[in-house]
What we know:
The protein is α/β, with parallel strands linked by helices. It has helices at residues 2-32, 42-45, 55-60, 66-77, 80-90, 114-126, 145-151, 194-202, 224-237, 251-272; strands spanning 102-106, 129-134, 152-154, 169-171, 211-213, 239-242, 278-279.
Amino acid sequence: xxxxRMEESVQGAxxxxxxxxxxxxxxxxxxxxxxxxxxxxxxxxxxxxAGVFDNDATVSYLYTxxxxxxxxxxxxxxxxxxxxxxxKFLGVVPDVFQEGFNAALFRFIATPDLECQLAQDMASLAxxxxxxxxxxNDKFCTRNADKMHLGKLSFxxxxxxxxxxxxxxxKVIDLVQSEGVSFRQLxxxxxxxxxxxxxxxxxxxxxxxPTFDVSRFKTNGETASEVYMKVFSLFICHGVLxxxxxxxxxxxxxRFTHEVIIPTFEAIYQKFGVRPLIVPIISNEDExxxxxxxxxxxxxxxxxxx
Length: 306
């Protein structure tokens, strides 16, 4: 019994050390990028003297440091009036968010790339319940880099295992024929459902992770802004969102961030009086595709042989 308690104590200390290291890294990154956590309106703080948006300033004010978000979420969860206000706005809070203290990653389809693993590790170290949010009622598009990475998987090199697939790119679907096809109708080159394929390899990486399909927020022709109003409301007191908005290297994301994300963020802030809690996963300086690479361990589970 004493030995077990000592081991638990050591594990707890190690976990706390890792959490503090993660907090220090993410908080320091935000400070180096000039990011503070002041509850001022984004629109007022992010325009220069000519009234033109400054990308760095605009995106910076969307973020909350991990340590602040953790403490802030604990306070807000105790605010019954705020919770009731959010629940009234949403109608019904999704089951996976009802217990509170969640950390979510929002991507098109749940898939076990490096970004997902990093988000899951951050959530675990901070004591959050990890949730993967998807948007399954979308269509494949080769112009969208995130969707392209779902259709053609990239792997890290693994010299130790001398695996020929490692370090290569593996095509999952016919990229040309899949253009504009709904995710739900899309098939892999071997005839497997595209969504089922990603969910299958997702489940090989450990415990079952709860998912939520944001398509449930778009049932009556809602606009992107209307959908994000509901999405951001989940991060008022029910959880935090792990996200990066890369506005420097991606023109489409730059436009979407300024036309949808920022105005919606501001609208939610005005509605509830507090900001949605958005925590950056990585430094905005690391805008490279390696975060969408997959570990070589999943190669045996691909089942892509003809």
